[in-house]
Amino acid sequence: MNTCYVYLRVSTDEQAKEGFSLDNQKRACLEFARNKNYHVKEVFLEEGRSARTTDRPEFQRLLKAIEEKPTDTLVVYKIDRFARNVNDFTRIYNDLKNKDIRLLSVTEGDLMESNSLIPNIFASVAQWESEVNGQRTKAAMLQKFNNGWWPGWAPIGYMNVKRGDKRVVVPDPKVAPLVIEAFKLYSTGEYSFLELCREMFRKGLTGKSNDKMMSVSTMQHTLSNTFYYGLMKWGKPKQLEKMGKHKPLIKKALFDQCQFIAAKHRNFLVRERKYNYLLRGHTFCLIHNRRLTAEAHPVKSKKPKVVSYYHCTMPGGCKGTYLEAELLERRIANLFKRYEFNPEFIEMVRTKVKEYFESGRKNHNSERSGILNRRKAIEKKRNRLEDLLVDGTITRDVFKRQHAKFQVQIANLDEQLMELEEKHKIDVTLIDEVLALTRNIYQTYIDAPDYLKRHYLRFFFEGIYIKDKRIAKVVETPLFSTLRRQNKVIIRSNWLPG
Q1: CA-to-CA separations, 256 to 135, 367, 414, 422, 430, in angstroms, rounded
Q2: CA neighbor of 166 nearest in space, from 139, 194, 147
Q3: 346: in domain
Q4: What pLDDT is recorded for position 497?
Q5: Are residues 478 and 371 part of one domain?
Q6: What is the CATH number of the domain that holds 261?
Q7: 311 belongs to a structural domain
């Protein structure tokens, strides 16, 4: 008995069409093989793939099987299931012919009986259909976008569902709260992208297609995606923008705050690495005037561990700068013990902060009172409208229309209240950090997360130079040096020579 392989394919758009379903194709192909007295060695099922290229997992597995375990015949349901590109079809067709493997189509018959003209005509028609369908699909997706609905796969935190005769994007009840929390945590400024990935992984947020921690690039893309506050962007190279009808997960104010934090991090942080060393870019070799780099080294012991070292980038090495990372970072932290702001400067900052708070409270309370008064007035109108409905004074249509308008106005005012509170919270956090720095420079530096430590290093020092495994020279920034010359910053007496 002759043997055969069976190859079946259905694209994403065709999966819902009964005539092209894999089950129907499989049933027809197996019956066709049985009637031809073929023994089916294996069936290759390709689901959700286009035939415009040969870069399909099951198709590649089929070609490998043909090489390693030859067969007499390859059965397909139709040429366009097999290939929709004339060049690919011709190449594979000739390869099968050279191997004496027949290509049979359930709907088009034996494609090896005639010369290659007829099969190529079929393949040309399949390619033409593919291109036409592609244009139709693009047009349909563009129309869907123009109607306010997202035409592609849902981003993380959303899912694609079918509503009536169309597919829409809705929040994923399990993942959406985690995405919202990621935005809120990042907006505090206390997390780098890598730290946020780790924190959210502990809370249950993973990559879209696996159970692993979300990559830094995916987190960065997620937090910069305007889709989450409602703005859809579609198409290349000319990108279209439109506010979508999907439910936003966050407010634009929160999104903008995250972009502000990201911009600050880009200005002051080194790029994310597996080992994100604190002093990169701040320390130098005094002998060779080169930046110190850092790298991790495994240490053999009963409990294997990794120890990191800073060193000069001079070819051939520089023993005088080869320092354990933890030791050098501790020594540089101790530099901040030398400095303190003088009492007059601290008092001046405190006075300015007090003025800022008093002014801010007045503005905050005034804005909040205005919003609450407008909300209360709208609620009165809404309550009056409800009474008119009960009395039968107005129709249901009038009630629905007016009531919906009032509800939208109330929701907008609630959003303004939330934005006002968020802004106040951010301002208070920033002021608290400033006050802490003036009171105790060293302790504030120690308590700060790494990204903020880098801010402080850039504020105080232009460069810290190492020689003979010691801090040999410290170059202050012009701003900090000016503050010190004006006695706004003083060096503690126990750090003075002698």
Answers
A1: 36, 21, 18, 12, 17
A2: 147
A3: yes
A4: 38
A5: yes
A6: 3.90.1750.20
A7: no
State which of 252, 268, 284 marks the end of a domain: 268
The residue out of 268, 301, 319 marking a domain boundary is 268
What pLDDT score does 131 carry? Answer: 52
Domain contains 264? yes
- End-to-end CA, the chain: 102
Tell me the residue range of the domain where 11 lies: 2-143
- pLDDT of 335 > 70? The answer is yes
Do 466 and 425 belong to one domain?
A: yes
208/92 same-domain check = no
193 with 127, same domain: the answer is: no
Per-residue pLDDT of 374-428, as tens digits, reads 999 999 999 998 888 888 888 888 888 888 888 888 888 887 787 777 666 655 6
Residue 27: closest CA among 50, 3, 48, 6: 6
How far apart CA 213 and CA 199 sit, in angstroms, is: 10
Tokens encoding 367: 């804005």
In this structure, is residue 150 part of a structural domain?
no
For residues 101 and 195, membership in a common domain is answered with: no
pLDDT tens-digit map of 133-160: 556 666 777 788 888 888 888 899 999 8
* pLDDT tens digits along 8-59: 888 765 554 445 678 888 889 999 999 989 999 999 988 766 646 667 888 8
pLDDT at site 132 = 53
Q: 65 with 173, same domain? A: no
